[in-house]
From TrEMBL:
Coiled coil: none annotated. PANTHER family: ABC TRANSPORTER PERMEASE PROTEIN MG189-RELATED-RELATED, SN-GLYCEROL-3-PHOSPHATE TRANSPORT SYSTEM PERMEASE PROTEIN UGPE. Residues 92-284 form the ABC transmembrane type-1 domain. Its main location: membrane. InterPro entries: MetI-like, MetI-like_sf. Belongs to the binding-protein-dependent transport system permease family. The keyword Amino-acid biosynthesis does not apply. This is Carbohydrate ABC transporter permease. Keywords: Cell membrane, Membrane, Transmembrane, Transmembrane helix, Transport. CDD domains: TM_PBP2. GO terms for biological process: transmembrane transport. Gene3D superfamilies: MetI-like. SUPFAM superfamilies: MetI-like.
Length: 298
């Protein structure tokens, strides 16, 4: 082979590729977007930070201190006054009992209903689901009178159990739909295998299907616990005859007096009522996301 032919067959060296400006832009764009959202995040978080700051201020400093977040003189009397004078210690116990009862009622009822509605051969399934979705558009205040009469006929008025039943009733629609979507995505082979092993309908539900729905259980628990913890209207109506059973949301009215409002005490009480919600969310945030994603995917 001649030298000329070797030169022709030798591949020409490839020039090094220059920087890809498009890839660099895609890497920088998220950072620019984060810089744009930081002021809005601070604006959103500022009221909460101000509430915590006001809980450690005196009444005079809170009213005359403007937008300052750092107290000049730290005081803990506001928390003591909220816990004892405003009886937030008793109200916290009532709220925990009320919220846990609501969560248990919603979980048991919605899981059972969602499992039944997840069966494709259920007669009238579309009608039932349509009625459930339609009830979501009815304002809660319109149904409080029949619910109050029903709870009174059951002899559960002026009690936390009656208030929990009234709170859990309207809260069942979304959990039912979440459980229905999750159970519909589980293969029927698991139920068939359980029946072959001799398990009945209830045993299949409690031993096989319900343990698989832990993400949805976490989501429903978190949503309804927060809703029940912050509830005001239902606990107010169903504890009018027994003020000792008031919840934290209703107890906030203790800071409003005829001569003025205890704003710093209210800020301390708001901090007390917020701490349990934050703790519950931190424990259930992963299952919350998994439950929503699993129900929507299915």
């Amino acid at each position: 082979m001649s030298t000329t032919e070797l030169v022709r067959e030798t591949p020409a060296p490839v020039a090094p590729a220059g920087p890809d400006r498009r890839n660099r832009w895609y890497k920088i764009r998220p950072k620019l977007w984060h810089l744009f959202l930081i002021p809005f995040c601070l604006l959103w978080v500022y009221p909460f930070i101000w509430m915590v700051s006001a809980a450690f201020k005196s009444q005079r400093e809170m009213l005359l201190g403007g937008l300052s977040l750092i107290p000049e003189e730290w005081t803990y009397e506001n928390f003591e006054r909220a816990w004892t004078t405003a009886r937030f210690g008793d109200y916290t116990i009532n709220t925990v009992t009320f919220s846990i009862t609501v969560v248990l009622i919603v979980l048991l009822a919605s899981a059972a209903a969602g499992y039944a509605l997840s069966r494709p051969d259920l007669p009238g399934k579309k009608v039932i689901v349509g009625i459930l979705i339609a009830t979501m558009f009815i304002p809660h205040g319109y149904t409080i009178i029949p619910v109050f009469l029903l709870v009174s006929d059951l002899g559960l008025n002026n009690g936390l159990l009656g208030a929990a039943l009234a709170q859990a009733g309207p809260a069942l629609v979304v959990p039912i739909l979440l459980f229905m979507g999750f159970f519909a995505g589980i293969p029927r082979d698991l139920e068939d295998a359980a029946r072959v092993d001799g398990a009945g309908y209830l045993r299949t539900f409690f031993r096989v299907m319900l343990p698989l729905s832990k993400p949805v259980i976490g989501t429903v628990t978190l949503l309804n616990f927060i809703t029940a913890w912050n509830a005001f209207f239902v606990p107010l109506v169903f504890t009018l005859g027994n003020p000792d059973l008031r919840t934290l949301g209703v107890g906030m009215y203790n800071f409003f007096g005829q001569e003025g409002t205890d704003w710093t005490g209210m800020a301390a009480a708001a901090c007390i009522s917020t701490i349990p919600i934050v703790i519950v969310f931190l424990f259930l945030q992963r299952t919350f996301v998994e439950g929503i994603a699993g129900a929507v995917k299915n």
